[in-house]
What does this fold into?
Amino acid sequence: MAPEHGLGPTGRLQMGALATLAALGLTLGATPERPTPEPAVEGSWAFTNVTVLPMDAERSLTDHTVVVVDGVITAVGPAGSIEVPADATIIDGRGRWLMPGLAEMHAHVPPVPPNGPQRPPREMLDDIFFLYVANGITAIRGMLGAPYQIDLRAEIRDERHLAPDFWAAAPSINGNSAPTPAAAEAMIRDAAAAGYDLMKIHPGVSRETWDHMVAVADEVGLTFGGHVPAAVGIEHALATGISTVDHVDGYLEAAAGGTANPIAIVQNLDENRMRELARRTAEAGAYVVPTMYLWENLYSKPDADRVLALPEMRYVSPAQREGWRSQNAGGPDLPPEVVADFLDARKRMLRYLVEAGAPLLMGTDSPQLFNVPGFALHRELAVVADAGISNYAVLESGTRNVARYVSEELGHAGDFGVVAAGMRADLVLLEADPLADLDNLNRRAGVMVRGRWVTADEIDAGLAALAARHGG
It folds into this structure.
């Protein structure tokens, strides 16, 4: 797909997505050594004397008991007031915090390899899913669709994989795949018939094609989200019902008079226009997936040796690491002061969106440039917080907001994202309070995925096996 932008970083990212995923899996899946917890949700569990972050409001419930039976939270209340089933496995929560599992809302699950099998090896998929679970991520939205992912989604929900819940976007509508309104209509109808959860949008779509796509999507009941094509523009995309705006490029381009060049953007940004676009986003009810960490790396071109020495790099293949090195070297060359101003403008735009009431969703675009699945989410949260977003709002973007999006836009049950009776048991047990410091999300005592308890020891063993496999 040809890039729309003058410097072309977004286009290059998308052109490289397939190669990135292929490199990630070159050795993922070879000689599986990672211990896998039993794929069963039957049974009773009780988190006792724990501080609960229910995420239905900014509050903490101290000295509580949370009971899980067969993958569903059945009771939440003060310790001593909740009857614990006699057969329950007790998990001591003293000095610990229990919160909903997080979500990665812009992930790329491997597509079908060119001229290869109809789906990637199971071991490759399971290792990628493990990286998410190991990081407290219990739901992902796949944004690079492939037919096998429909079956994969069913397998996950049938407990045949230790994996986050999974929503699958269809193969994207873009300037190449849908050069005409008729082509876009065929893709929308095929995606709805196949059972995809949403339609992914990439750049290059004409205004005429967009408007016809919207009409057909409304007819068949399929939501759409992703990039904002230049010919469409953020205002028209919002007015016609885009459900998620992934990345914030469209906002800056519109607020700078339509230019996509970072130099021109920082010279021409209209702050009042930025605030107005934020207000329109909130009024439209669209969700924003900012992917801030990716753009920090894309435009700043950090020292590759430094980034590739980060601890999480041991969990991906040497080929992937070298692929990222090459991708980094080919990024845009901009004066440092322009990069600083441009990245600061992205943070201001994000802050205006939150101040206006536009809901955020966590997302990283993993495994794009330097984004190790799962680990990248925690890098992302630090950048979002640095934009001036409160810790609670950051946590909400990966919990309650996701449940709202899934219910409102995908039409599925939003029975997760808060800790309450009747909710799915997607939980993270932490050794310290994430409301006080988001870094505490990395201090995991265990993760529960639809009632399947994965201990910190099991997580450590699985990560060690991945590191050994990749020579980490």
In short: Residues 336-356 form the longest helix (21 residues). The CA atoms of residues 367 and 373 lie 6 Å apart. The chain has a mean pLDDT of 91. The radius of gyration is 22 Å.
